[in-house]
Amino acid sequence: MSVEVQIPVALAKHAGNQESLMLNGNSVREALDSLMKTYPTLKTHLLNEKGELRHFVNIYVNDQDIRHGEQMKTPLKAGDVLIIVPSIAGGSTIKTESTELSPKEIQRYSRHLIMPEVGLEGQKKLKAAKILCVGAGGLGSPLAMYLAAAGVGTLGIVEFDVVDYSNLQRQLLHDTDRVGKPKLQSAMDRLRAINPEVKLVGYETRLTSDNVLDIMKNYDIVIDGTDNFPTRYLVNDACVLLKKPNIYGSIFRFEGQASVFDSLKGPCYRCLYPEPPPPGLVPSCAEGGVLGILPGIIGTIQATEAIKIIIGKGETLVGRLLLFNALKMQFREMKLRKDDSCPICGKNPTITKLIDYEKFCGLTRGETSQVEEKKMDSSVEITATELKELWDKNKKLKVVDVRNPEEYEICRIEGASLIPLSEIGSRLGELNKNDQIVLHCHHGMRSLRALEVLKKAGFQNVKSLSGGIDAWSIEIDPSIPRY
Ligand SMILES: [Zn+2]
């Protein structure tokens, strides 16, 4: 019978430095005899003068201690795994044991184990690895599911959001019946179902300068699955300070990017983009939309890079920015250089500790996400209920929808006219400065930007609908679908 014998690190030097080898034997005794015949110096470590197993050596067959079975006569069948575990002082055996694969795991990962690039050694590295996934949304879904399935030993998930209907088009971690429930719990349940062997660690919190170093310090690799600039810079800076690789991915409509930022070997995110764009210039996915499959492609690329780094095989995306265009079905690659004057990973870094990332990105706290609640500014904003009252009193009130035409097609407030934010500057002639004007968008962010444009052009009597058409749907007209 061909069985696998796993040799502990402490004894490997007596077995040709092998930690695992295949032997023949119909019982534990036969297998050990065969092992000691090949490697005679092992004998004194395993057996006493009487030829009995030494007390400080335990033998397991498929995770079962043979002392509780037929001991040395324990029969073996093909494919069994015989594990030798000496009781060594200190904790070193724990690590050896924990990264050994159980027969169940060997079966589960068999398609990896038979690949020369992964093999048993690579799979053990995966089991020993600790990866932190920032976000369990579009990118986080495929990457966490594939990493769990692949047998990454410890997966940390940072997520504080709740599942929304509009997530389901791409965030496969979450089922329809989880809408309204915390994403973290939903993600953990799905990942546990995929692979119960993986240790899952959840952080139901927003990543901030105060907690990021504590959360990240225990992980080997960080994967950025976020969708906003403050967190992206925070993750980058924390990874540079902790000298950890940061696997980057971003998505918008039909296009995606991926890279590996590892300041020890190449550039960081700041070498590529030293500063974020001004708020509002780059639309978010919530604003501009994203093809549901796109995070599946980019997130899977991120997971692939993580696995390559762990098993130490292939060429990673360090120093390369991969660009993907789904409409053209084209991948392009840009070379990235480390910037010697980079403020965090350059020769004379000016950033030596974490900063206020919301401020750095030109945002006030709470403005990072479109759907987040923010304090209403009553000097320029109006609630849906107030707008309804005002409109009932003043039929001449001009309501302007500054969303995109695609959004106007989905739903509209009856009587509102459409002038998209991107066109409002050139279409001011369509508006009358003497009119009372209320601007609205989806959630109330773009209408505030449109309001600034109008104010600068001399419009005095303008307000923005707080919470946008979404608030109108909730407070005034539930027949308007929310999206
Ligand atoms: Zn840099």
Question: What report would you give on this structure?
Answer:
By secondary structure, this protein is α/β, with parallel strands linked by helices. It folds into 3 domains: 2-86, Beta-grasp domain (Ubiquitin-like (UB roll)); 129-360, NAD(P)-binding Rossmann-like Domain (Rossmann fold, 3-Layer(aba) Sandwich); 381-475, Rhodanese-like domain (Oxidized Rhodanese, domain 1), CATH 3.40.250.10. It is built from 20 helices and 18 strands. The strands form 3 sheets. Strands 8-7-6-9-10-11-12-13 form an 8-stranded mixed β-sheet, with helices on both faces. The radius of gyration is 29 Å and the shape is elongated. Mean pLDDT is 89; it is low at 89-97 and 365-373. It binds zinc ion. Zinc ion is lined by residues 267-268, 270-271, 339, 342, 344-345.
